Outer membrane beta-barrel protein
Amino acid sequence: MNLPFLKKILLSVFITITFQANTIAQTSNYSVGLFADMMMESPGYDTYYGVNGKYDFSKHSAVQAFVGYSNIHITTIGADYIYQIFDKEKSNFNIYGGLGFSGDFYRKTVHVEFGEYSASGKVKMNLFAINPTIGISYHAPIINSSIFAGYKAKYYPFENAVDINFLSVGLRYHF
C-alpha cells in the first residue's frame, strides 16, 4: 500500500467520524458540571465558582440549579429557567435566554486596628437577586458534554442595585 493512498483513507475516515459526530444531537435530559461567573468591570472583578445541574424538560426548555462561592466571600444558591432557540435533538449548537433567582449570602470576618486598639467581628448580609441571562452552548457528542458561555446581570430588587457584565462560562456532562 502506498503512502498517498493511506493518507486519503485516513482523511476519509476522519471526515466521516467528524461529520457523524456533528450530526448526533443531544438526547440526554440530565447534566451536571462546573461554572464560573466573572464580573467584567472594575473595581470588583467578582468571580463565582461552583457546580450546576440542568434538566431539559422539553426540546427547548430547561431549568438549571447552581451553588457557588465567590472570591469576595459570597455563597450563591439559585435556579434559572432557560429557553433554547434550537431543538436540542436536532442541533448541537444552541442560543439560549432565561431568567432566574438566587440568594447571595455574604459572610466575612473583619479585623480593624486603630493605634493601640483593635476589634474583630463578623459582617453578614443576605441578598435576593433576579438574574436575566443570554448565551450560547455547544454539545460535544464525542465527550457527551456541553460547553456554554453567556452574559448575566444580577438585579437586587430590595436594595435597588444592579451588578452587570457577568461573563458566565461552564462545562456540563450529560448522563
